[in-house]
Amino acid sequence: MKLRHLLLAVLITAIWGLNFSIIKLGLATVDPFILAGIRFTLCALPAVFFIRKPNVPWQYWVGYGLIFGIGLWGMVNLGIKTGLSAGIASLVLQFSAFFTLLLGSWVFKEALTRYQLAGMAIALSGLICVIFIIDGSVTLTGLALVLFGAAAWSVANIINKKASTREVFAFLVWSSLVSPIPLFALDYAVNGTAGYVALAQQLDMTAVVSILFQVYPNTLFAYWVWNSLLKTYPVSTVAPLSLLVPLFGMLGSVLIFDESLPATKAWAMLLIVLGLIVGLYGQRLARLLASRRIQPAA
To answer: pTM score > 0.85 for this model?
Structure first.
Protein backbone atom coordinates (compact mmCIF):
# COMPACT_ATOMS: atom_id res chain seq x y z
CA MET A 1 0.00 0.00 0.00
CA LYS A 2 1.31 3.44 -0.89
CA LEU A 3 2.28 5.58 2.10
CA ARG A 4 -0.34 8.26 1.39
CA HIS A 5 -3.05 5.61 1.18
CA LEU A 6 -1.84 4.00 4.40
CA LEU A 7 -1.95 7.36 6.18
CA LEU A 8 -5.42 7.99 4.76
CA ALA A 9 -6.62 4.61 6.05
CA VAL A 10 -5.21 5.33 9.51
CA LEU A 11 -6.96 8.73 9.42
CA ILE A 12 -10.27 7.00 8.70
CA THR A 13 -9.86 4.61 11.63
CA ALA A 14 -9.02 7.61 13.85
CA ILE A 15 -12.19 9.39 12.69
CA TRP A 16 -14.30 6.29 13.35
CA GLY A 17 -12.74 5.80 16.79
CA LEU A 18 -13.08 9.45 17.77
CA ASN A 19 -16.70 9.45 16.61
CA PHE A 20 -17.84 7.64 19.77
CA SER A 21 -16.64 10.52 21.94
CA ILE A 22 -18.17 13.03 19.51
CA ILE A 23 -21.49 11.20 19.82
CA LYS A 24 -21.28 11.42 23.60
CA LEU A 25 -20.72 15.19 23.38
CA GLY A 26 -23.86 15.54 21.28
CA LEU A 27 -25.90 13.39 23.66
CA ALA A 28 -25.40 15.97 26.40
CA THR A 29 -28.22 18.05 24.84
CA VAL A 30 -29.87 15.86 22.18
CA ASP A 31 -31.88 12.65 22.69
CA PRO A 32 -30.20 9.50 21.29
CA PHE A 33 -32.81 8.72 18.63
CA ILE A 34 -33.15 12.35 17.56
CA LEU A 35 -29.37 12.66 17.26
CA ALA A 36 -29.26 9.58 15.02
CA GLY A 37 -32.27 10.82 13.05
CA ILE A 38 -30.68 14.18 12.31
CA ARG A 39 -27.43 12.44 11.35
CA PHE A 40 -29.08 10.26 8.72
CA THR A 41 -31.32 13.06 7.48
CA LEU A 42 -28.23 15.08 6.58
CA CYS A 43 -26.54 11.99 5.12
CA ALA A 44 -29.48 11.62 2.72
CA LEU A 45 -30.36 15.25 2.01
CA PRO A 46 -29.73 16.94 -0.31
CA ALA A 47 -27.53 14.21 -1.86
CA VAL A 48 -30.49 11.95 -2.65
CA PHE A 49 -31.73 14.52 -5.20
CA PHE A 50 -28.48 14.30 -7.18
CA ILE A 51 -27.56 10.61 -6.87
CA ARG A 52 -29.53 7.89 -8.60
CA LYS A 53 -30.88 4.97 -6.62
CA PRO A 54 -28.45 2.05 -6.43
CA ASN A 55 -29.11 -0.66 -8.99
CA VAL A 56 -30.34 -3.21 -6.44
CA PRO A 57 -33.84 -4.29 -5.32
CA TRP A 58 -35.35 -1.70 -3.00
CA GLN A 59 -35.66 -4.25 -0.17
CA TYR A 60 -31.87 -4.22 0.26
CA TRP A 61 -31.33 -0.50 0.74
CA VAL A 62 -34.54 -0.08 2.75
CA GLY A 63 -33.65 -3.01 5.03
CA TYR A 64 -30.07 -1.79 5.38
CA GLY A 65 -31.25 1.72 6.27
CA LEU A 66 -33.61 0.50 8.98
CA ILE A 67 -31.11 -1.85 10.58
CA PHE A 68 -28.03 0.37 10.21
CA GLY A 69 -29.85 3.50 11.37
CA ILE A 70 -32.07 2.17 14.16
CA GLY A 71 -30.63 -1.19 15.15
CA LEU A 72 -27.01 -0.05 15.09
CA TRP A 73 -26.61 3.67 15.71
CA GLY A 74 -29.90 4.25 17.51
CA MET A 75 -28.97 1.54 20.01
CA VAL A 76 -25.31 2.62 20.29
CA ASN A 77 -26.40 6.20 21.00
CA LEU A 78 -28.84 4.95 23.63
CA GLY A 79 -26.17 2.72 25.16
CA ILE A 80 -23.74 5.62 25.52
CA LYS A 81 -26.54 7.78 26.94
CA THR A 82 -27.25 5.18 29.63
CA GLY A 83 -23.69 5.46 30.94
CA LEU A 84 -21.40 3.30 28.82
CA SER A 85 -18.20 5.20 28.09
CA ALA A 86 -17.32 6.12 24.52
CA GLY A 87 -14.13 4.07 24.72
CA ILE A 88 -15.86 0.91 25.92
CA ALA A 89 -18.62 1.37 23.32
CA SER A 90 -16.04 1.51 20.52
CA LEU A 91 -14.45 -1.67 21.86
CA VAL A 92 -17.61 -3.70 22.43
CA LEU A 93 -19.03 -2.78 19.02
CA GLN A 94 -16.19 -4.75 17.42
CA PHE A 95 -18.09 -7.92 18.37
CA SER A 96 -20.02 -7.27 15.16
CA ALA A 97 -17.16 -9.10 13.39
CA PHE A 98 -17.94 -12.29 15.31
CA PHE A 99 -21.71 -11.90 14.94
CA THR A 100 -21.13 -11.52 11.19
CA LEU A 101 -19.08 -14.74 11.14
CA LEU A 102 -21.82 -16.61 13.02
CA LEU A 103 -24.60 -15.20 10.86
CA GLY A 104 -22.60 -15.81 7.69
CA SER A 105 -22.06 -19.44 8.68
CA TRP A 106 -25.83 -19.82 8.89
CA VAL A 107 -26.90 -17.77 5.85
CA PHE A 108 -24.11 -18.72 3.46
CA LYS A 109 -23.36 -22.17 4.95
CA GLU A 110 -19.78 -21.11 5.69
CA ALA A 111 -18.03 -23.44 8.14
CA LEU A 112 -16.32 -21.77 11.09
CA THR A 113 -12.59 -22.50 11.41
CA ARG A 114 -10.82 -23.35 14.65
CA TYR A 115 -9.13 -19.94 14.49
CA GLN A 116 -12.48 -18.18 14.35
CA LEU A 117 -13.79 -20.20 17.29
CA ALA A 118 -10.59 -19.54 19.27
CA GLY A 119 -10.83 -15.83 18.48
CA MET A 120 -14.41 -15.72 19.72
CA ALA A 121 -13.39 -17.43 22.97
CA ILE A 122 -10.52 -14.98 23.54
CA ALA A 123 -12.73 -11.96 22.79
CA LEU A 124 -15.47 -13.32 25.03
CA SER A 125 -12.99 -13.45 27.92
CA GLY A 126 -12.29 -9.78 27.20
CA LEU A 127 -16.01 -9.03 27.35
CA ILE A 128 -16.18 -10.74 30.75
CA CYS A 129 -13.40 -8.40 31.88
CA VAL A 130 -15.54 -5.46 30.74
CA ILE A 131 -18.38 -6.60 32.99
CA PHE A 132 -16.08 -6.38 36.02
CA ILE A 133 -14.88 -2.84 35.35
CA ILE A 134 -15.96 -0.78 38.35
CA ASP A 135 -14.74 2.73 37.51
CA GLY A 136 -18.20 3.91 36.45
CA SER A 137 -17.57 3.65 32.71
CA VAL A 138 -19.68 0.50 32.26
CA THR A 139 -23.39 -0.09 32.75
CA LEU A 140 -24.98 -3.46 32.02
CA THR A 141 -27.84 -1.76 30.16
CA GLY A 142 -25.41 0.21 28.00
CA LEU A 143 -23.34 -2.91 27.38
CA ALA A 144 -26.42 -4.87 26.29
CA LEU A 145 -27.56 -2.07 23.96
CA VAL A 146 -24.19 -1.79 22.23
CA LEU A 147 -23.99 -5.59 21.87
CA PHE A 148 -27.44 -5.42 20.29
CA GLY A 149 -26.05 -2.74 17.96
CA ALA A 150 -23.13 -5.03 17.10
CA ALA A 151 -25.58 -7.82 16.21
CA ALA A 152 -27.61 -5.39 14.09
CA TRP A 153 -24.44 -4.33 12.29
CA SER A 154 -23.77 -7.98 11.42
CA VAL A 155 -27.24 -8.22 9.87
CA ALA A 156 -26.55 -5.02 7.92
CA ASN A 157 -23.28 -6.54 6.70
CA ILE A 158 -25.10 -9.62 5.43
CA ILE A 159 -27.67 -7.44 3.62
CA ASN A 160 -24.83 -5.44 2.06
CA LYS A 161 -23.11 -8.63 0.94
CA LYS A 162 -26.29 -10.06 -0.57
CA ALA A 163 -26.99 -6.76 -2.36
CA SER A 164 -23.53 -6.99 -4.00
CA THR A 165 -23.70 -3.40 -5.22
CA ARG A 166 -20.71 -1.51 -6.59
CA GLU A 167 -22.60 1.77 -6.14
CA VAL A 168 -21.48 2.02 -2.54
CA PHE A 169 -22.01 5.76 -2.07
CA ALA A 170 -25.47 5.69 -3.65
CA PHE A 171 -26.39 2.71 -1.47
CA LEU A 172 -25.29 4.62 1.63
CA VAL A 173 -27.16 7.80 0.69
CA TRP A 174 -30.43 6.11 -0.25
CA SER A 175 -30.40 3.79 2.74
CA SER A 176 -29.88 6.84 4.98
CA LEU A 177 -33.16 8.22 3.63
CA VAL A 178 -35.02 5.36 5.32
CA SER A 179 -33.68 5.85 8.86
CA PRO A 180 -34.82 9.31 10.07
CA ILE A 181 -38.63 9.03 10.24
CA PRO A 182 -38.63 5.75 12.24
CA LEU A 183 -35.96 7.22 14.57
CA PHE A 184 -37.92 10.42 15.13
CA ALA A 185 -41.13 8.42 15.63
CA LEU A 186 -39.42 6.10 18.09
CA ASP A 187 -38.22 9.03 20.18
CA TYR A 188 -41.75 10.48 20.20
CA ALA A 189 -43.19 7.12 21.24
CA VAL A 190 -40.74 6.87 24.15
CA ASN A 191 -40.42 10.49 25.29
CA GLY A 192 -43.36 12.34 23.75
CA THR A 193 -42.50 15.90 22.75
CA ALA A 194 -39.90 16.33 25.53
CA GLY A 195 -36.93 15.54 23.30
CA TYR A 196 -38.03 17.97 20.61
CA VAL A 197 -38.72 20.75 23.10
CA ALA A 198 -35.27 20.20 24.62
CA LEU A 199 -33.73 20.23 21.15
CA ALA A 200 -35.24 23.62 20.39
CA GLN A 201 -34.22 25.06 23.76
CA GLN A 202 -30.83 23.45 24.42
CA LEU A 203 -29.22 22.90 21.01
CA ASP A 204 -25.74 24.39 21.27
CA MET A 205 -22.63 24.64 19.14
CA THR A 206 -21.20 21.44 20.66
CA ALA A 207 -24.24 19.46 19.51
CA VAL A 208 -24.12 21.07 16.04
CA VAL A 209 -20.43 20.17 15.66
CA SER A 210 -21.20 16.63 16.89
CA ILE A 211 -23.92 16.19 14.26
CA LEU A 212 -21.83 17.64 11.43
CA PHE A 213 -18.85 15.44 12.36
CA GLN A 214 -21.02 12.32 12.36
CA VAL A 215 -22.50 13.18 8.96
CA TYR A 216 -19.59 14.39 6.86
CA PRO A 217 -16.17 13.17 8.07
CA ASN A 218 -17.44 10.04 9.83
CA THR A 219 -20.11 8.74 7.45
CA LEU A 220 -19.98 10.19 3.95
CA PHE A 221 -16.24 10.90 3.68
CA ALA A 222 -14.89 7.97 5.69
CA TYR A 223 -17.05 5.25 4.12
CA TRP A 224 -16.38 6.61 0.63
CA VAL A 225 -12.60 6.61 1.18
CA TRP A 226 -12.59 3.21 2.90
CA ASN A 227 -14.56 1.54 0.14
CA SER A 228 -12.35 3.22 -2.47
CA LEU A 229 -9.31 1.69 -0.74
CA LEU A 230 -11.02 -1.70 -0.73
CA LYS A 231 -11.44 -1.41 -4.50
CA THR A 232 -7.78 -0.41 -4.95
CA TYR A 233 -6.13 -2.95 -2.63
CA PRO A 234 -6.91 -6.51 -1.48
CA VAL A 235 -9.29 -6.77 1.46
CA SER A 236 -6.52 -8.56 3.37
CA THR A 237 -4.42 -5.38 3.14
CA VAL A 238 -7.06 -2.83 4.12
CA ALA A 239 -9.37 -4.64 6.56
CA PRO A 240 -6.81 -5.34 9.33
CA LEU A 241 -6.36 -1.59 9.81
CA SER A 242 -9.90 -1.44 11.23
CA LEU A 243 -8.43 -2.97 14.40
CA LEU A 244 -7.16 0.54 15.16
CA VAL A 245 -10.73 1.83 15.62
CA PRO A 246 -11.19 0.70 19.27
CA LEU A 247 -7.68 1.93 20.11
CA PHE A 248 -8.51 5.40 18.78
CA GLY A 249 -11.92 5.14 20.44
CA MET A 250 -10.35 4.51 23.84
CA LEU A 251 -7.72 7.21 23.28
CA GLY A 252 -10.39 9.74 22.35
CA SER A 253 -12.39 8.94 25.47
CA VAL A 254 -9.29 9.28 27.66
CA LEU A 255 -8.36 12.65 26.13
CA ILE A 256 -11.84 14.20 25.91
CA PHE A 257 -13.56 12.75 28.99
CA ASP A 258 -10.52 11.86 31.09
CA GLU A 259 -11.61 8.22 31.14
CA SER A 260 -9.47 6.12 33.44
CA LEU A 261 -7.56 3.15 32.07
CA PRO A 262 -7.19 0.63 34.92
CA ALA A 263 -5.61 -2.80 34.42
CA THR A 264 -8.99 -4.53 33.99
CA LYS A 265 -9.90 -2.23 31.11
CA ALA A 266 -6.47 -2.61 29.51
CA TRP A 267 -6.77 -6.40 29.70
CA ALA A 268 -10.27 -6.26 28.22
CA MET A 269 -9.05 -4.16 25.29
CA LEU A 270 -6.03 -6.44 24.74
CA LEU A 271 -8.11 -9.65 24.80
CA ILE A 272 -10.83 -8.34 22.49
CA VAL A 273 -8.35 -6.99 19.94
CA LEU A 274 -6.30 -10.21 20.20
CA GLY A 275 -9.48 -12.23 19.69
CA LEU A 276 -10.26 -10.22 16.56
CA ILE A 277 -6.74 -10.82 15.21
CA VAL A 278 -6.93 -14.57 15.86
CA GLY A 279 -10.50 -14.94 14.63
CA LEU A 280 -10.23 -12.85 11.48
CA TYR A 281 -6.61 -13.31 10.47
CA GLY A 282 -5.28 -16.32 12.41
CA GLN A 283 -5.57 -18.81 9.57
CA ARG A 284 -3.87 -16.43 7.14
CA LEU A 285 -1.05 -15.73 9.58
CA ALA A 286 -0.58 -19.45 10.24
CA ARG A 287 -0.28 -20.15 6.52
CA LEU A 288 2.20 -17.30 6.12
CA LEU A 289 4.37 -18.63 8.95
CA ALA A 290 4.19 -22.17 7.58
CA SER A 291 5.25 -21.04 4.11
CA ARG A 292 8.25 -19.23 5.56
CA ARG A 293 9.36 -22.34 7.43
CA ILE A 294 9.50 -24.29 4.18
CA GLN A 295 12.84 -23.40 2.63
CA PRO A 296 13.58 -24.45 -0.96
CA ALA A 297 16.37 -26.95 -1.41
CA ALA A 298 19.74 -25.47 -2.32
So the answer is: yes
